[in-house]
Design a protein that fits this description.
InterPro entries: VIT, VWF_A, vWFA_dom_sf. By secondary structure, the chain is an alpha+beta fold. Helices cover about 25% and strands about 35% of the residues. The two termini are about 15 Å apart.
C-alpha cells in the first residue's frame, strides 16, 4: 500500500514538473496573442483559390565601381490563384545599404514611388488598397530588415518591383567583400513587456519547414565588377559562380546553376587587387554649393612598436536553440582556436548563455596556462544548444565581471544575432564597456549583421562573420591577430584650405592590422587644400598628407546619398541618449530630402487605375526558408525548444528525491 502511495506521489510530482514547465513556457506577460508574435512554420491552409506563394523570383544585379556597389533587386509577384491578393514579404538587406529608389511594372506601365513619412505612406497605401488600385509599400523595420507589400494583384497579374540601393564595400586582410543577404533568420523576442516601444510585429513571419515540398521562388544574381585596378583574385566562398574576365580590371560573375531555388544563405563575393599598399584614397561628389567626400584610411605598413600590455579576454558565447547544430559546432571550434591562441601573461573567462547564463570561472578570470586551457576546452565541449536567446542579461553579466588590474580588457561576443534588442544591446555596451573594446563574431549562414556590426561599432572594435567551419578557424586567428596589433591610435584629420561642415564618424576609431577606416563628410565652397592624417603607431608618430583639388580624387554621383545614410545611422544611435522627437524630425528630413528609406520614411507607389472592383482581397504572407544550418528549434510558438539548464537541474533533483523515497519505502515494505 505504501508503495502504491509512493507511486502516486511520483506521478503527481512528475506531473507537477510538467505543469511547471508549461507555466515557464507561458510566463507572465506572454499571452496567447504574444505567442503568435514569433516565427512560425508555414502551413498550406489558405482558403480555396488563394495563391499562398505569390513571390515567383528575385533577380539581383550588382554593379561595383571602385569601393562602391549599386544593387538593383527585382522581385516578381504572379497571382496563379482565382482571388485578388495582397502579398507581404519580409526580406533582408545590407546594413550599409542606402535604399533610394523604388518602382513597379505591370504590363508596359512603370510606376515610380514617392518617399513619404512612414505613417503618411501607410495611409496612402491603405487608401489605394481599399479603392482597388495596385499599390506597393516598402518599409524598413531594422537597418537590415525590410518589408514589401503589394496590394490588388489580380488573378494572372504579373507585378515586377525594383528597388535600388548603394553601399560601400569593406576591405579586410587585403580583400574587398560584397554581401547580399537572402533570408531573415528567426528572431527571439523574449519578454513582451521588455519590448515596449520596440516594434517586433515583423517577427511573426512564416518559415518553410525543411520537410515542406513547395515550388520555392527562383533566385538569380550577377555582378559586374570594375574596381579601377587589376583584379588579382576573385571568388565566392558561399556559392558556385561563373567568372568571365572581360579585361584585367573588369569581370562579370553569375550564380551557377541559374536560377537557384529558394536560396537559404548569404551570397558573399570577395576580391583583391594587384596594388598591395593603397594610399589614402578619396572619392568626391560635387554640388552647386559644396559637396561630399569619402576618405579611405589604410593602416601603415608597419605594426605598432613597444611591449604589449597583458590582456584579459572575456568571451560571451551564444548556446541558444537557434545555434544548435552546425552554428554551435563552428562556434565551439572558433572558441577552441581562440583559447589555444591566448598568450602567456593573458587571462580569460567565458560566459555561455541561452535563456539563462553560466560562467566558466566564477570569481576571477583564469590565468592562461596549459591546464586552464584544457579545462576551458572541456567546458566548452560540454555545452549544447537550447532555449531562448536572452542576450541582454548575459551581456550585462559579462561586462560586470571583476576586472584584472594592470590588464587591457577585450570582450568577444559570439552569436548568430537572432534577437530584436539591438538598440538596447548597443546602449548597454556604450554605457558599461568602459575603457575596454568589444569585437563581435557572427556565426551562421545568414546572421543578423545589424546586431553584429552595431555591437562592434558601439564597442570600438570590429566585426567578423564565419559561415562555415573553415572560415571559423580563419576569423578566429584574424581576431586574435587584430586585437594584439592596433597599428594606429589617436587618429586626427586636419583639413587645411577646405571648409568641412560635418564628418562621420566624429571620433576616429583606432586602425587595426589589415582593417582600414572610412570617413565620410560634407563640405561647402570649392574643393581644394590639403588633408593631413596624424596618429600614433605604437610609440612612433605617424603622418601622411594628401593634396586636394589636383584631379587625383575621382568624382562619383552617390557619395551624398551615402553621407545621408551614415548621418541617419549616427542619429539612430543617438536615439539612446537624445530627444527622440528631435532625432526623428532630423531623420525624416534627411529621408525626404535624399529619397532615402529609413525607420521613419517609406517608399509608396500607386497606379491610378482601379483594378479590383467588388471582389474580396486575401492577404498572403510569403514564407521564407530557414537559413542554412539553423535548427528547427529556432522556430515555434513561444515555447522553449529545450528546457533551460536550471529547469533540467530542478527536474533531476526532484525526481532523485522521489526515487530515494520510493526505494526507502520499498525497503521498509520488504522488512
Amino acid at each position: 500500500m505504501k508503495t502504491k502511495n509512493i507511486l502516486i506521489l511520483l506521478s503527481a510530482g512528475f506531473g507537477g514538473l510538467l505543469l511547471m514547465g508549461s507555466a515557464r513556457a507561458n510566463s507572465p506577460g506572454e499571452s496567447s496573442t504574444d505567442r503568435t508574435e514569433v516565427p512560425y512554420f508555414w502551413t498550406p491552409s489558405m482558403k480555396e483559390g488563394v495563391d499562398a506563394l505569390p513571390l515567383k523570383s528575385t533577380d539581383v544585379q550588382v554593379k561595383i565601381e571602385g569601393m562602391l556597389a549599386t544593387v538593383t533587386v527585382s522581385q516578381v509577384y504572379r497571382n496563379e490563384g482565382t482571388v485578388p491578393i495582397e502579398a507581404s514579404y519580409i526580406f533582408p538587406g545590407s546594413t550599409r545599404a542606402a535604399v533610394n529608389d523604388l518602382r513597379f511594372t505591370i504590363g508596359e506601365r512603370v510606376i515610380s514611388a514617392e518617399i513619404q513619412e512612414k505613417e503618411e505612406a501607410r495611409r496612402t497605401y491603405e487608401a489605394a488598397k481599399t479603392e482597388g488600385k495596385r499599390t506597393v509599400l516598402l518599409e524598413q523595420h531594422r537597418p537590415n530588415v525590410f518589408q514589401m507589400k503589394v496590394a490588388n494583384i489580380l488573378p494572372a497579374d504579373v507585378v515586377s518591383v525594383q528597388l535600388v540601393y548603394t553601399e560601400t564595400l569593406p576591405r579586410e586582410n587585403g580583400d574587398y567583400e560584397f554581401v547580399y543577404p537572402t533570408v531573415v533568420g528567426p528572431r527571439y523576442v523574449g519578454d513582451p513587456e521588455a519590448q515596449a516601444g520596440n516594434s517586433t510585429e515583423w517577427v511573426h513571419s512564416p518559415f518553410l519547414s525543411p520537410e515542406t515540398e513547395v515550388a520555392a521562388p527562383e533566385f538569380r544574381l550577377s555582378v559586374d565588377l570594375t574596381p579601377g585596378q587589376t583584379i588579382r583574385r576573385i571568388g565566392s566562398p558561399s556559392h558556385k559562380v561563373d567568372i568571365d574576365y572581360r579585361e584585367a580590371d573588369h569581370a562579370v560573375l553569375e550564380l551557377t546553376p541559374a536560377p537557384l531555388r529558394s536560396d537559404d544563405r548569404d551570397f558573399i563575393l570577395r576580391y583583391s587587387l594587384a596594388d598591395e599598399e593603397p594610399e589614402v584614397g578619396i572619392l568626391l561628389t560635387k554640388t552647386e554649393d559644396g559637396g561630399y567626400f569619402l576618405v579611405n584610411l589604410e593602416p601603415p605598413a608597419r605594426q605598432a612598436s613597444g611591449v604589449a600590455m597583458p590582456r584579459e579576454y572575456l568571451f560571451l558565447l551564444d548556446v541558444s536553440g537557434s545555434m544548435e547544430g552546425f552554428p554551435l559546432t563552428i562556434a565551439k571550434q572558433v572558441m577552441g582556436g581562440l583559447i589555444e591562441d591566448l598568450g602567456s601573461g593573458d587571462s580569460f573567462n567565458i560566459v555561455a548563455f541561452a535563456g539563462s547564463s553560466e560562467v566558466f570561472s566564477e570569481r576571477v578570470s583564469a590565468k592562461v596556462s596549459p591546464s586552464s586551457k584544457q579545462r576551458a576546452l572541456e567546458w566548452i565541449d560540454g555545452l549544447s544548444g537550447m532555449g531562448g536567446t536572452n542576450l541582454l542579461p548575459a551581456l550585462k553579466r559579462v561586462l560586470q565581471l571583476p576586472r584584472d588590474e594592470g590588464t587591457s580588457r577585450t570582450v568577444v561576443v559570439i552569436t548568430d544575432g537572432y534577437v530584436v534588442v539591438e538598440r538596447e544591446a548597443f546602449e548597454l555596451i556604450r554605457n558599461s564597456l568602459g575603457e575596454a573594446n568589444l569585437f563581435a563574431l557572427g556565426i551562421g549562414s545568414s546572421v543578423n549583421r545589424h546586431l553584429i556590426e552595431g555591437m562592434a561599432r558601439a564597442g570600438g572594435g570590429d566585426e567578423f562573420v564565419a559561415t562555415n567551419i573553415r572560415e571559423g578557424k580563419e576569423v578566429g586567428a584574424q581576431l586574435i591577430k587584430m586585437v594584439r596589433n592596433p597599428v594606429l591610435t589617436q587618429i586626427s584629420l586636419d583639413w587645411e584650405g577646405l571648409e568641412v561642415k560635418e564628418m562621420l564618424p566624429e571620433r576616429q576609431p583606432d586602425l587595426f592590422l589589415d582593417k582600414p577606416v572610412r570617413v565620410i563628410g560634407r563640405f561647402e565652397g570649392e574643393w581644394g587644400g590639403r588633408l593631413t592624417v596624424t596618429g600614433k603607431a605604437g610609440s612612433d608618430d605617424f603622418e601622411q598628407t594628401v593634396e586636394l583639388g589636383n584631379g587625383n580624387q575621382p568624382s562619383v554621383g552617390s557619395i551624398g546619398i551615402l553621407w545621408a545614410r551614415e548621418k541617419v545611422q549616427a542619429l539612430t544611435d543617438s536615439l539612446l541618449f537624445g530627444d527622440e522627437g528631435s532625432v526623428r524630425s532630423q531623420i525624416v528630413e534627411l529621408g525626404l530630402r535624399y529619397r532615402l528609406l529609413t525607420r521613419y520614411t517609406s517608399f509608396v507607389a500607386v497606379e491610378e487605375v482601379i483594378a479590383r472592383q467588388e471582389e474580396d482581397l486575401a492577404t498572403v504572407k510569403q514564407p521564407v526558408p530557414l537559413p542554412a544550418g539553423v535548427s528547427s528549434l529556432a522556430v515555434g510558438a513561444g515555447i522553449p525548444a529545450s528546457p533551460e539548464p536550471e529547469t533540467v537541474g530542478l527536474v533531476l533533483l526532484v525526481l532523485g528525491a522521489l526515487a530515494v523515497l520510493f526505494w526507502s519505502s520499498r525497503k521498509k515494505d520488504a522488512q
